[in-house]
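Support request from a user on the community tier.

User writes: "When I paste my structure tokens into the form, the page sometimes reloads and wipes my input. The last time it worked, I copied everything first. Here is what I submitted, just in case something in the input itself triggers the reload:"
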């Protein structure tokens, strides 16, 4: 069985995992520059070593109630096609290796068309991790909106 490494992050009390191969870097939260007329879940843009990249609130994207930012708040930067996108998360503190046998398919009840970014549920002991593919997080229209920022 193959093993896959995931960057684990939190939104509220829930733990999520994203394949480490999608993640370019994890950094401290910095206040993004607001951009008018963007989707509600876009917090703005930030400068990452000379590149201006969009910053997305995963909590807003997933309709999770917002909480105060803390010292643990992080941005996870992923490569999204030829672009980069930063996602705001409550905490990103570990890399976890899961055996593929410990990753179950997404249950039908949450596997609707809007949930294509949830690729499975990872289990490690008593922990359940929602495994995401952030490349599927945005629909075509949203991708076009971000590309024109």
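"...and here is what came back when it finally went through:"
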């Amino acid at each position: 069985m193959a093993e896959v490494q995931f960057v684990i992050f939190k939104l509220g009390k829930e733990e999520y995992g994203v394949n480490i191969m999608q993640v370019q870097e994890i950094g401290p939260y910095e206040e993004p520059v607001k951009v008018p007329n963007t989707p509600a879940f876009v917090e703005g843009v930030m400068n990452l070593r000379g590149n201006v990249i969009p910053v997305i609130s995963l909590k807003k994207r997933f309709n999770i109630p917002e909480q105060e930012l803390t010292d643990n708040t992080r941005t996870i930067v992923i490569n999204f096609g030829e672009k980069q996108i930063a996602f705001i998360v409550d905490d990103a503190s570990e890399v976890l290796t899961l055996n593929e046998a410990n990753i179950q398919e997404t249950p039908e009840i949450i596997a609707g068309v809007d949930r294509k970014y949830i690729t499975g549920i990872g289990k490690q002991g008593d922990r359940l991790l929602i495994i995401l593919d952030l490349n599927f997080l945005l629909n075509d229209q949203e991708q076009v909106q971000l590309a024109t920022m």
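Agent notes: The reload is a front-end session timeout and is unrelated to the input. The first strand starts at residue 3 and ends at 11. The helical segments are 58-61, 140-147. Escalated to web team.
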